[in-house]
Amino acid sequence: MLRCLPTFRARAARAMSTTPSLVQIEKKDNYAIVRLSRAPVNSLNMELLQAIDEAVQSLEQDKNIKGMILSSTNPKIFSAGLDITEMYQPKTKRLREFWRAFQNTYLRLYTTPLATVAAIEGHSPAGGCLLAMCCDSRVMSLGGPLIGLNETKLGIVAPFWMRDVMVNTIGHRETEKMLGLGLQVNALRGKEIGLIDEAVPVEQVHSVAEKLLLEWLSIPSSARKLTKAMMRDETAQKLRSRLDEDRSNFVDFCETDKVQSALAGYLAALKKKAEAKAAK
Ligand SMILES: CC/C=C\CCC/C=C/C(=O)SCCNC(=O)CCNC(=O)[C@H](O)C(C)(C)COP(=O)(O)OP(=O)(O)OC[C@H]1O[C@@H](n2cnc3c(N)ncnc32)[C@H](O)[C@@H]1OP(=O)(O)O
To answer: Tens digits of per-residue pLDDT, 109-151?
Structure first.
């Protein structure tokens, strides 16, 4: 048994060195850069959601770390939102675990005492937009990338807590339009409506994100954390008190024929677009 141990350890080490990590953490002096790293588009499957949750939790436990920049290893895509293949033709048990992972990741990121800034270089639809909105500030690159909650365009409905976070960020009327019409906007329009704090050329996204983070970190820490809690706890508590009900609503909705056929159509359209791109 003891003789097996080094072999087992060597295998585990090899596996760890070859399995790409879904989230990369780079620690700086008193903050970390957390890069989503699930090719090709950082679609949020259960494992990526759990990895984000664990990454934030581990940074919260590190006494030297006071803040984080949430970013992507893919400069063209921040995150494509929830992985649609998790919701299409699902197994109920996995679907339930997937939604719980989404709820947990939202609650962790929205209420973390760390100061958080989203550095958005590329597209950020739906669940990607939620991750960005959970941060204290958002910097986005000018030009092509779009951000927004586009769920209605897919024929699905965002849960109340995604709506609440958007209302807290851009107000009721703008949310009504963005959410109802499934709109995605570029950085300039995002800045006009308060969804984005800074719209800058792509090469400046990280330096401006760092500047914003340092501004948050210049505030006396306990005052900053208590104020964040005061602003956000009520919204988070609304979901905490209804976790199971929200999950049941999602699972029931997702498993309807109507939603399954909408997801099938959307996946087929994505595939067709990808094939046309590859053929060029
Ligand atoms: C029932 C549910 C009820 C309630 C849930 C409410 C909450 C839902 C939240 C969500 O997040 S839903 C997901 C919404 N996301 C989107 O609409 C984004 C869809 N994707 C795109 O628009 C584009 O892919 C892009 C992100 C702009 C990137 O474009 P690009 O041209 O760079 O890549 P391409 O489109 O070719 O995609 C590459 C590859 O990735 C697959 N893909 C893309 N997005 C997703 C996704 N969200 N889930 C799963 N897979 C995705 C795409 O099909 C291609 O795959 P292929 O290479 O195998 O063809």
So the answer is: 999 999 999 999 999 999 999 999 999 999 999 989 999 999 9
* DSSP class per residue in 80-103: --B-HHHHSS--HHHHHHHHHHHH
Cα–Cα dist 127/36, whole Å: 13
Tokens for 181, please give them. Answer: 């019409």
Ligand 1: which residue has its CA nearest to atom 58? 271
Ligand 1 pocket, Cβ-based, cut-off 6 angstroms: 40-41, 43, 76-77, 80-85, 87, 123, 125-127, 150-151, 154, 156-158, 250, 253-254, 259, 270-271, 273-274, 277
Cβ atoms of 178 and 188 within 8 Å: the answer is: no
Whole-number average pLDDT of the chain: 94
Examine the pLDDT at 93 and tell me if it is beyond 80.
yes
In DSSP terms, 198 is beta-bridged to 139
Determine whether 67 is an active site residue: no
- Site to probe by mutation for ligand 1, drawn from 41, 162, 267 as the one with most ligand atoms within 8 Å of Cβ, is 41
Query: Taking the CA atoms of the chain, what radius of gyration do you get in angstroms?
Result: 19
| Residue 80 Cα: closest atom of ligand 1 | 26
pTM of the model: 0.94
The separation between CA 242 and the C-alpha centre of its own chain, rounded to angstroms, equals 21
Looking up residue 28, the CATH number of its domain turns out to be 3.90.226.10
Nearest alpha-carbon partner for 71 in 13, 125, 30, 25: 25
- Full residue range of the structural domain in which residue 177 is found: 23-279
- Give residues with Cβ within 8 angstroms of 153, minimum separation 6: 182
183 is catalytic: no
Residue 13 maps to a domain: no
**Number of domains present in the structure of the chain:** 1
* ipTM here: 0.99
Asked whether residue 6 is domain-assigned, the answer is: no
